Amino acid sequence: MAEEYKAPRGFHDILGSDLRKFRRITSLVRTLLKRYNYEEIIVPIVEFAKVFERSIGEATDIVQKEMFVFPDRKGRVLALRPEGTAGVVRAYIENKLYALRPYHKFFYEGPMFRYERPQAGRYRQFHQIGAEVFGVAEPHADAELLKLVQDILDGLSIDAVIEINSLGCKLCRPTYREALTRYLHDVSGHLCDVCIDRKDRNPLRVLDCKVETCREAVKEAPKMVDFLCEECREHYTKLKLYLDKLGVKYKENYNLVRGLDYYTRTVFEAVSEKLGVAVVAGGRYDYLVEEFGGPPTPALGFAAGIERLMLLVDEPEKDYELYFVIPFGDVYSYAINVADMLRRKGKVVELSYRGGGLKKQLELANKMDADYAVIIGEDEMREGVVSIKDMKTGEQKKLKVGELM
């Protein structure tokens, strides 16, 4: 196949076994989100680029290097969404949802786009399912959100460690930022080129660098938890208390900062022990709605990477029986009617589109993993019956159509 007719690098088809894993994950997560009374919201894949620059942060790698940005016909700069929260915040404000009730709980599902190096479980088009809560400042909301994350991991039988940290608020973080910046200047000789650039523009991101020399250099760095104001300290303490009460296992990671600028106070990641990367991540963003021009609104949320979760789950077992209807001769009007009656009774039915002898038809039924072959010839049509064969045992018998139902 010519190169121009292949999927672009980092974009991929999802089908077969992978699609069944995909649907297993989204079905389980959707069920849990509904159980927690989250309401679905669908937002555009394309937004004005400023939506993401304002929310994610102009100094982040996502905005500087990874966004798919393009002009429309009028020269306005648009972007394919690299994450879900910014669009939901924009929708919350634009539709004045804050005026309807004190708080809202939303969830979304869909593709995201980042121009980064493709790797296992991460593509340039990838899929997330996420949740957002608007209008609740209390730490019990953080704890309940993390319990939901734990329920997702347990439901998918995934071993992952939930790591938490607090990034403080706009009152206490500036003092910490100054202390961290001074420390990074002292150890700058051990930082990679990217972190040397980050240390003044976005010093917290240095803590998250995966380069070994940087990881070693920040081992003795100041910790945000030591700079928290009284309100942030109380919020973090209560969060841990509630998590203990809920039985959510967690580990404190004082270098956890996440890659987006909008986070405040609670941040968290569920890190897969097998993959060594986060499969679910999120936190609190109490100032983002206000920064977008909405009213002051505390908020928090998370997103789960579906492709990464797919690397950790088994393909679900088939949960239905397939009836493969095989017509012989001029019996299609009868066969179509039998197939229709089976479907109206809730059965999964494949009406064979292929001609050929019975042997070839049964081979096709096996390829389709059929449970039963419903064989219909002119004799069966005349007698008002079908011949049904159990594809697992080989047992075959004639039944009246009513008996088949």
TrEMBL record:
What SUPFAM superfamilies does the record tag this protein with? Class II aaRS ABD-related, Class II aaRS and biotin synthetases
Q: What is its EC number?
A: 6.1.1.21
A single GO cellular-component term on record: cytoplasm
Task: State a single Pfam family of this protein.
Answer: HGTP_anticodon
**NCBIfam families, alphabetized:** hisS
Alphabetical keyword list: Aminoacyl-tRNA synthetase, ATP-binding, Cytoplasm, Ligase, Nucleotide-binding, Protein biosynthesis
Q: Which reaction does it catalyse?
A: tRNA(His) + L-histidine + ATP = L-histidyl-tRNA(His) + AMP + diphosphate + H(+)
Q: Which domain of life is it from?
A: Bacteria
Give an example GO biological process. histidyl-tRNA aminoacylation
Full protein name: Histidine--tRNA ligase
Entry-linked PROSITE patterns: AA_TRNA_LIGASE_II
- Which gene is transcribed and translated to give this protein? hisS
Summarize the subunit comment: Homodimer.
Which GO terms label this protein's molecular function in UniProt?
ATP binding; histidine-tRNA ligase activity
Where in or outside the cell it occurs: the entry states: Cytoplasm
Provide the Aminoacyl-transfer RNA synthetases class-II family profile domain boundaries: 1-327
Which family does the similarity line name? Belongs to the class-II aminoacyl-tRNA synthetase family.
Which organism is this protein's natural source?
Hydrogenivirga caldilitoris
The entry marks the following residues as binding L-histidine, namely E83, G84, T85, R114, Q128, E132, R258, Y262, Y263
